[in-house]
Design brief:
Elements: H1 2-7, E1 21-25, H2 28-31, H3 38-51, E2 66-71, E3 77-82, H4 87-103, E4 108-112, H5 113-123, E5 129-131, H6 136-142, E6 145-150, H7 152-160, E7 170-174, E8 184-185, H8 189-197, E9 202-206, E10 209-214, E11 226-229, E12 232-236, E13 244-250, E14 253-266, H9 274-277, E15 289-297, E16 305-308, E17 313-317, E18 326-329, E19 332-336, E20 342-347, E21 352-355, H10 375-378, H11 382-388, H12 392-399
Amino acid sequence: MFRSLNRLKPALEFLPNKVDFELRPLGRSWEQESSTRHSVRWFHVRVCLILLLFSPLFSFCRSSGNHSLKWISQPRNILLVKKSHSESSSNAMHHVINHIRSKFSDTNIIVEDGVSRELAAVHGIHGLYTASQANESTLLSKVDFAITLGGDGTALHTASLFPTGPVPPVLSFSTGTLGFLLPFHVNTYKSAIDDVFNSTVSVIKRMRLMCTLHDASGRLIDDLDVSHVLNEVALHRGRYPHLVQIEIYVDGMPLTEAVADGLIVSTPTGSSAYSLSAGGPLVHPCVQSIVLTPICPRSLSFRPVILPSDSTVQLRMSSKARSKPDVSLDGREVMQLENDNYIQIAMSPFPLPSINRAAQYDPESRTSTPRLPSEKQLAQSALDRLGRAQDDWVRDINDLLNFNSRFESKGHEIYHGGQDD
């Protein structure tokens, strides 16, 4: 009897397709445009809104900055992803599911297959839809938005579930360690989820990189296929003692030959991860760019380089190299780079829409025809503009990195005497 019931668990294919939503730029995205260009800017935005129905055409709307999110209709399918082997994340998911089912009863909840079995055994939760890498295309067409419970690694894993298409908006909760991709603590899950359903959140479109493997003739090799990464592509010496020698080309032009322990090609989001540890610069996620950071280079003059986001980077092993570099995508080892092959890296057409705190914007005040701001509105103080576009990144580099904090001596405290004296 149990086996027959197990075969009848809900199938993703029968879920309704994901609903449409639109993103509109907030604050600084349009206020810095000159008055003579507002009509052109708003025309571009409106064209992007038409493309923003999360069809493949969504990829061509590449504006950065904070955006307001508005659902065209109520979200119906939510993907929940939690940190593996974490009791706190499992308990948090239990509470999140109960809240969604009690307040948004028409919502379908999707989890990974192993998580479904765990929730049924530990918390007695049934009736969940299960997902695996085998039904990647189904996830692309069904998921309205995703909720992650864990750390930055959980958010990266969620992005990897959509390696060939647009990622749905992602709401990330910290269940312990803080991270750059975790704007919400799990204690605020009720208000945060309600804000997403009510379209009172802002979204940052975090740029991803598209990575492909080619042979000497330029033909695409299927071993790597097409991968979209959120943090970085890293070439490193791996188990070999020799330095790697990598020829770097930008838009087909030779830039340099890197002789180092490795080379990191990162996104602005990845600039606060592996690249930062290797001495790379911090880049705001709204500044779309590609960062090249050497790992322990032999030449002290080889400094990190920031390239425009529309650049194409090609990396190939030098003929003088004594070993093959290992290739890692977002920390996952995927292959070794062979002779005559090269890796091509460019801006992905599918960014990750990261949900931030509530937007200082009234969705009901939007009109079908955007109105140009008056001179008085354009002259508003910088404090007002900053209040409308809360920046989690600035908070994070101070709270998580202690950015530019001075060194303090903790070993020489003044002794004031005690009771034993």
